[in-house]
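User: Show me a protein chain along with its predicted structure.
Assistant: Here is one chain, sequence first, then structure tokens.
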Amino acid sequence: MLSDIEIAQQANLKPITQIATEIGVDHNALEPYGKYKAKIDFKADKNRIQQSNLILVTATTPNKSGSGKTTTSVALTQGLQKIGKNAIVALREPSLGPCFGMKGGAAGGGYSQVLPMEDINLHFTGDFHAITSANNTLAALVDNYQYLNQGKPTGLKKVLWRRVLDVNDRSLRYITSGLGGSTNGIPQETGFDITPASEIMAILCLSTSLDDLRRRIGQILLGYTHEGNAFRVDDLKVTGAIITLLKDAIHPNLVQTLEGGAAFIHGGPFANIAHGCNSIMATYAALQHSEYTVTESGFGSDLGAEKFLNIKCRAAGLTPKATVLVTTTQSLKLHGMVPEKEIKLQNKEGLQKGLANLERHIQNLQNFGQTVVVALNQFHFDSEEELQMVEDFCKGLGAAFARNQGFAKGGDGAVELARKVVEVVENNPSKEIQHTYELNDSVEVKIEKIVQKVYGGKNIILGDNARKALKNIIELGADRWPVCIAKTQFSFTDNAKKVGVEKDFTIRIDQLIVNAGAEFIVAVAGDIMRMPGLPKEPSALGMDVVNGKITGLS
């Protein structure tokens, strides 16, 4: 089979103006970026949005190569179109960090991709650049204010704002800035996060309009003055300046699937260190122009789906009609204690043990009130007996089941899944989301409820730094916001090596970070890093440009 990039480069793309016309986008709202991608300046129509069917795609706990969640999201959309449904997919934008690092690109795979694949995976329409620039301009303005107000009561005693860069670079996690004498700033310990972890990324993805974006940017907490007062962007009087860098980035991006269907791609927070969902604006745009909107959340139900349902749906006023839970026999065997190098081999005993991981994820989603469709991504090495084991297990838990071969066959390979999703939506009235916690719960109680109800743990421990931050959170009134837990994606615990399904464990929270613009609290669990590092053999080693074409991008 051809590589992802070879398949993408052989596709015949439609002009983006044609894609826009086909879904009813007003051409006056279309802002083309070349022939095959554009931004959409649209006004949300809540009545039309509520008439569409929102389908969430999540996954079981992944192995290192993932479960094929984005590929499944695209395949399902193509499959829905094959059976005559007006469907649009809404996805996150890939980050350059993992693209050149361990995972590679994030535009789907095989015959279920979004195009132009190279553009989407690389610089695209400049959204990540705009967010990085806005974040770092704000950092420079804070440093300048601090430099000019040294020794004054209005000066800053503590700066919370960090710089970001869209690369995996462990050397930048903890640095000292301002060295070289008094004219070069104030020496201080600081560091970089990766751009998807920037609060501005979260704000962009949770904003429902340019005015909402302005409001949220203005209330970002930058630090504290010597008098102990909270210091925000509005206090710095640069909200307008930051908005100028984001005025185009707020608009959703329109592209297409490999089969010529519309796709909105916008925003890219990670689900292990942020809230892991594409923008509300892109989801609104897809809902407004489709009968079915398929959207994904990062990693498993314990991360992206939990945050989608507890954070994004609260902010956007949305409720999915059903949730598709993606899995593979490989992931299940890994969580059945089969060595990673053997997970492609038949092993009924290992698969049987791994079904406990699938059960936890199904129950998580059902506890939210969701009707679940398990999508098993089928590979050539999967045996019929093992596939039937998974199907029977799902049915025993009250979850629908479908095999998916979208990677190899595109929309044709996802027709079974598409029909199952439509059947579920048409025969099961959607229920209100049963949130894990109430907004008036304390921060500690919110974290405990997530750990107990979603992860299957027993207790939490707040480290000294987290306890100190909790006092400030309460004083700011931020304790009534949702909680976004940053933790490993490879385990229900805060230890990536503990695969399977652990019980009665304790989660340690070392930091509580106030994201006042995003209006949630980030709780950092275990040794999760907000700036990833590169692996032993980065994906960058295989990339090149040959005869004017990019090669090695996956």
